[in-house]
Amino acid sequence: MAKKYKSPRLKHVTRIAIDEINIGKGHRDLTAVLDLKTGAVIFVGDGKGVDSLKPFFKRLRYSKAEIKAVAIDMSPSYIAAVLENLPESTIVFDHFHVIKLYNDKLSELRRAIHREAAGPLQKKVLKGTSWLLLKNSHNRRRRPDLCGGARICALFRGRGYPAGF
After folding, report:
1. For residues 69 and 92, is the Cβ–Cβ distance under 8 A?
2. In the chain, what is the straight-line distance between the N-terminal and C-terminal CA atoms, in Å?
3. Measured distance CA(71)–CA(36) in Å, rounded
4. 143 with 131: CB under 8 angstroms?
5. Judging by DSSP bridges, how do beta strands 90-93 and 69-72 pair with one another?
6. Stretch 71-76: mean pLDDT, rounded?
7. Rounded to whole angstroms, how far apart are CA atoms 106 and 129?
8. Using CA atoms, how far apart are residues 85 and 68, in angstroms rounded to an integer?
């Protein structure tokens, strides 16, 4: 793969995505860079992390490409590498990692509220209501068995979560 995508032209590339992939059972990692406009793989580095991107950034400087946006995961090392090598570009975090972070924080908050619940009745109301928070409010149908749904949503909003889960 690295041989096939060794040196495509970079001059007209403006938006890129950087991510690591795992090949096979041997746990061989590669770092791939894609041109988001064409979908073409423009660089494949051996290993994962910032060190594997050094040859790419060197070629990018030589090509004088004007990168406007870089899509990456939330890795601090990738953020630092992009800020150092492409200071004029905008960093965009990929959708998967943003949603995963949001869901992790929401689960953490639900557990904390469940621990604070005073009795079994309050815990029973909280149990199984994650769908209430995650589902689009316009797509939810009324469920009479969960009459406390509005109160639960209000409880979460009171802790800093936005309206309209």
Report:
1. yes
2. 43
3. 9
4. no
5. parallel
6. 88
7. 12
8. 12
Mean pLDDT of the chain: 78
123-142 mean pLDDT: 66
Residue range 23-54, pLDDT digits in tens: 877 678 888 999 999 888 999 888 877 888 99
Residue 87 DSSP label: T
Take residue 89 and report the two structure tokens written for it: 């570009």
What percentage of the chain exceeds 70 in pLDDT?
72
Hey, what amino acid is at 162? P
Q: What is the pLDDT of residue 6?
A: 59
Residue in the structure block whose two tokens are 């096979």 = 24
Cα–Cα distance, 64 to 133 (Å, whole number): 47
Q: At what angle do helices 95-116 and 149-157 cross, to 10 degrees?
A: 110
Exposure of 36 in the CB half-sphere (CA atoms within 13 A): 14
